[in-house]
Amino acid sequence: MLFLPGGDGDATTFDALLAHLPRVDAVVHDRRRAGDLPLTAHTDEVAATLTGGPATVVATSMGALIGLDLLARYPDRVGLLVAHEPPAVDLLPPAERADALARQEAVVATYAAHGADAGMRTLLTDIGVDLSDREPDAALPKLTAARLRNLDHLLRYDVTAAGRHRLDPAALAPVAERIVAAGGERSGGAYPYRCAVALAERLDLPFVLFPGGHTGYATHPRAFAGTLLEVLLQA
């Protein structure tokens, strides 16, 4: 199984989740941070690593956008894709799309004017994340120096790259049976959740609610793992 993180793209993103999936043979992609890369460059790098046959891909946020692009352009590399809240804003109705893009631009502007802490607070509010709402034993990732550098890259480049990316529903339609669209039970209707709903509606996909919000894999890892196993068993 291949896991594609959102957020800062760090390979440790899914550590809490994988602790509750001890029998899963998992590889976590650590997204390259090399300036203003288009999202498709990350897809190409992921595709180049998948040489052993179709993978089961579990992806969230920007990682889910990469997963969808991977399935659209390299369909032989993906057997099943669980796409958790991909911010595919181009799938939203015009007014909602404009609002989502404006929010992304505001995050980048806040970061530029006030730094990473202010930028992240704005981003987390916009995508429906409440880090205080979590399982009692769920410990959040520590903000190491490396992770802070990753967050800086997220706010400087990746938020914009995700907003610029355009999904290709026509390329996904022939392989839609391999996609599970997913959203967080506690995302509160934030725009990434609405994007996931729009994806399910556009491609006539099953829509699965996962525990927690946009970062449920970190805040509710035990329950998230349980739902993920149910999805995989039913696929």
Quick overview of this protein structure:
This protein is an alpha/beta fold and 235 residues long. 49% of the residues lie in helices and 12% in strands. Residues 2-225 form the AB hydrolase-1 domain.
Task: Write structural notes for this entry.
There is one protein chain. The protein is built from ten helices and six strands, in the order βαβαβαβααααβαβαα. It is an alpha/beta fold and 235 residues long. It has a single domain, classed as Alpha/Beta hydrolase fold, catalytic domain (Rossmann fold, 3-Layer(aba) Sandwich), CATH 3.40.50.1820. Helix 4 packs antiparallel against helix 6. It is globular. The model has no long low-confidence stretch (mean pLDDT 94). GO terms for molecular function: hydrolase activity. Residues 2-225 form the AB hydrolase-1 domain. Keywords: Hydrolase. It holds the Pfam family Abhydrolase_6.
List keywords for this structure.
10 helices, single chain, Rossmann fold, alpha/beta, 6 strands, six-stranded parallel beta sheet, 235 residues
CATH topology: Rossmann fold
- Looking across the biggest beta sheet, what order are the strands in? 2-1-3-4-5-6
Count of helical regions: 10
**How can the largest sheet be summarized?**
6 strands, parallel
Name of the level-1 CATH class: Alpha Beta
Distance between the termini: 14 Å
Question: How big a fraction of the residues is strand?
Answer: 5-15%
Anisotropy-based shape: globular
Class derived from helix and strand content: alpha/beta
Low-confidence stretches: none
CATH architecture: 3-Layer(aba) Sandwich
Strand tally: 6
CATH superfamily: Alpha/Beta hydrolase fold, catalytic domain
GO molecular function: hydrolase activity
Domain AB hydrolase-1: 2-225
Organism: Spirilliplanes yamanashiensis
Keywords: Hydrolase
